[in-house]
Amino acid sequence: MRCYRIDIFLAVLLIVRLLPICSAQPKPRSATPATANALSAIREADIKRDLFALADDHFQGREAGTLNELKASVWLADQLRAIGLQPAGDDGTFFQFFHLQRTRITETSRLSIGNRDLMHGRDAVVTVPAIASVDAPLVFVGTGTPAELAGVDLNGKAVALLFSGTAPANQNVYRFVFGTMQRRSAELTKAGASAVLFVSDNFAQGVYNRWSMLLERGRYDLPGGPNTRVFAQAPTVWLPASALSLVQQPGQRFTNVVNVESFSYPSVNIVARAPGTDPTLKNEYVLFSTHQDHDGVRMPVAGASTPGDSIYNGADDNASSCVAMMAIARAFVRQPAKRSALFVFHGAEERGLLGSRYYAEHPTVPKQSLVAVLNADMIGRNAPDSAALLGSQLPHRNSLDLVNAALTANQNGPQFKLDTLWDKVDHREGFYFRSDHLPYARQNIPAIFFTSLLHPDYHTPRDEPARIDLGKLTNVTRWMYLTGWDVANRPQRVRLDEGFKLER
């Protein structure tokens, strides 16, 4: 009998001890009209069908400024029309055309070391399009330390050195390599060098493998932008690690005859709306943002799904978000909100956020009517239960109201574990600054960025639709819809944080 009473006492004590823990657990998700609509209108089967269509080889990687980007744009506009959205581009269409300007090294340019010709983009890359003509003795200076440079006459020489250094933990490797080359090149040019040649070490070679093809394409910008400028200056040339023995041979000459050419290409934003129901609030817009371009056809990369595959289909980057926007559009057409929903599929994001920069400056609706921007970029990979919300931490956060709406929607929806590291100012990828929400945030429009972050197939031919986690993609889509639904139906607009200012 005594033991029985002790057991009861211990059981009651255990229940009392557990009460605070139990009360801290998330409350069961309530079934609301919005969540019901998200489940019924946003279907994995639709998302899969659209993903495999948009990321198909038919569109040849949707490279900005090409017919393939325009073909994909027409396909998207046709789908949006079929969904029931209204055109919201220029002149009553779904399209807002703009020009992008490409500046590149001409194909007739020539580089050589001794009797070996170098092909720009494969054997070497000129880091900045600049007009130059050099025929000079080549001198190798090791890693270019002060001791190695002491007593070396650099005047009128082409100076070759081995890149040396590793990016700090909080710095983007691409920016570190280019910043280092820019700084060292300026120092050596000031000392009299007529050209500077960097040979990749093991660290820089990894960056070279990924980015040399982009440099071969040249620079892109909106007309008159900083990347359209061409200078006559001593060239900086980046070589792969395999060129080390070549530049070390004595008595070599470096020859460089480089010309620059510029082209203007059309690109396009696809813009559509789902009108709101409130007589007043329907004149305000919640903007769902994504980009539809990718990298086109490039050099094959080892490990592609098909050996020799050179089509960069961009299934995650960013067909995943395009098909998510289409699914969200179906939900808003089926059940309109008080405010209107605006869907913008930006062109030329991979060329420097050009489509979003253009639209933020030339919106097809009054700029003051844009209540918030919900941007998505790469939302279908990595762990199925995790995602990230960039723009949720200071100084990137520009609307606590908008962030709280997204956090609540996540709690009431997929309940992702949210990565907080990639939104920090000291994260080496600087990912906040690399997607289409940024131009809107710079215009002081509340903006957030939904993503499932980078992965090893990023910007390779391996980014194929078969590798997408369709269940996760569907859940991120529903999360974005629930966030936008909340913002679109609030009596008051989400507020911009006072004193918002980005770190760069």
Largest sheet properties: 10 strands, mixed
**CATH fold label of the largest domain:** Aminopeptidase
Multimerization status: single chain
Q: Judging from the principal axes of the Cα atoms, what is the shape?
A: elongated
> Class of the largest domain in CATH?
Alpha Beta
Computed structural class: alpha/beta
Total count of helical runs of at least 4 residues: 13
**In the CATH hierarchy, what is the architecture of the largest domain at level 2?**
3-Layer(aba) Sandwich
CA(first)-CA(last) distance: 73 Å
What share of residues is helical? 25-40%
Query: Which homologous superfamily in CATH is the superfamily of the largest domain?
Result: Zn peptidases
User: Which regions have little confidence, pLDDT < 50, spanning 5+ residues?
Assistant: 1-29
Q: What's the mean pLDDT score? A: 90
Strand % is 15-25%
The tally of domains stands at 2
What is the gyration radius calculated from CA atoms?
27 Å
Number of DSSP strand runs: 21
What does it look like?
One of its GO terms (biological process) is proteolysis. GO terms for molecular function: metalloexopeptidase activity. Residues 269-480 form the Peptidase M28 domain. InterPro entries: M28_fam, PA_dom_sf, Peptidase_M28. This is Peptidase M28. This protein is an alpha/beta fold and 504 residues long. The chain has two domains: 33-102 and 265-489, Aminopeptidase, CATH 3.40.630; 107-258, Glucose Oxidase, domain 1 (3-Layer(bba) Sandwich). Helices cover 33% and strands 22% of the residues. It has helices at 2-23, 33-41, 44-54, 67-83, 146-149, 173-190, 202-217, 244-248, 315-334, 354-361, 400-412, 438-442, 470-489; strands at 86-87, 95-105, 110-113, 116-118, 125-126, 130-140, 158-162, 195-199, 219-221, 231-232, 236-239, 253-258, 260-274, 285-291, 296-297, 311-312, 340-346, 370-376, 386-390, 417-419, 447-451. The strands form three sheets. Strands 1, 2, 9, 13, 14, 17, 18, 19, 20 and 21 form a ten-stranded mixed β-sheet that branches. Strands 3, 4, 5, 6, 7, 8, 10, 11 and 12 form a nine-stranded mixed β-sheet that branches. Strand 6, helix 5 and strand 7 (158-162) form a beta-alpha-beta unit. Helix 3 (44-54) crosses helix 9. The radius of gyration is 27 Å and the shape is elongated. It starts with a helix and ends in a 15-residue tail after the last helix. Mean pLDDT is 90; it is low at 1-29.
